[in-house]
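Appendix B. Chain record.
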Amino acid sequence: MKKYTLLLVLLAFCALSAVAQETTPTLDSGNTAWLIVATAFVFLMTIPGLALFYGGLVRRKNVLSVFMQCFILAAVISIEWVIVGYSLTFGQGVGVLQPFIGDFSMVFLNGIGQQSVEPSGIPTYIWVLFQGMFAVITPALIVGAFAERIKFKGFLVFSLLWALLIYNPLAHWVWGGGWLSADGAIDFAGGTVVHINAGIAALVMAIMLGKRHEYAGHALPPHNVPFVAIGAALLWIGWFGFNAGSGLKADGLAGNAFLVTHICTATAALVWALIEWIRDKRPTTVGVCTGAVAGLVAITPAAGTVGLAGAFIIGIVAAFVCFFMVAVVKNKFGYDDSLDAFGVHGIGGMVGAILSGVLATNVVSGALEFYPLHQLGVQLIAVAATIAYSGIGTFILFVIVEKFVGLKVATKEQAIGLDETQHGETAYTNFD
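Structure tokens predicted for this chain:
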């Protein structure tokens, strides 16, 4: 009898151990290594990728202001993220607010330690930092709209408030279990949360700040095209971590995201160059770099749900639509989106988010996984909600910060340049 009792106890122990192993995530060294690399890649996109890309596009008297804006955002938003941003994004939420914003349960990463592991087998610390890199680059993208004409103090206050009140709630809607997530919206790596969100904010800021004082009747060419090319190349490389890392595993889904990201980008870069070649008789380095970024933006929401054919289609459409916005629409309406943050990121994000609802497939079998018309409707709702929330929220924040801190740089300071007037330094000592 004792033998049978002992046997039953052992069997029960084994069963409980098996259940515990199934329900408690265990560390996966392969996934962990990949996500550490992917996180570093995404950080590379802001510094030095975006800093060089945007810095090369502005005039020499403003290049350091762009670098400074990217660097300070990496510092400030990283701190905001671990103090409260992560909790507001991925916290459970309370009552009727749950679909719209998280809670304060994980302030200062409360409850997370070295032994905390995500379901994919990566340490929670790595997951926090990976998502933190997305939080950093999103407000940095807006820099392209108000480059060369914003006060540094006002920029800093605005960016911090925007991260808290615009980025964190929107990220919760889509990735933190909020209402868009419940509706089934597809946003694999940030088409709505990052690019449409930043692009719409960029448009609002460009309109509210007004044009640069030299904008009308003056050519404002990039001061350093090699910077632009190097920055675009770093963005292209970093985007592999951005998209392929968003599956949180080193698996076939990551492989698909890696492939379609590269092919969509290559397609958009080539198509943009061909459009310039046909229209203007010569392709430009800035043009092919801009086309590549448009492709990177457009594939971002779809990288986990489209295959190779979808990558080609999205790349072609993104190049045509974004080129039209940059070369035609902006000139027609006359708004000064300095570095085309809205035309490339906002519009490119819309292209990708909408086409995700049309081209979504099971990336393993290639079979359609969603009812395209239904999913298209869900995507359109997600795009519209992002436009409305980001646009209205950015407008309100602009009015408040302009009134109490100040955002617009005086005409004289614009003429001298932000490097000297805002930071007391210059990038180049020899102007020959």
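Further analysis of this model is presented in Appendix C.
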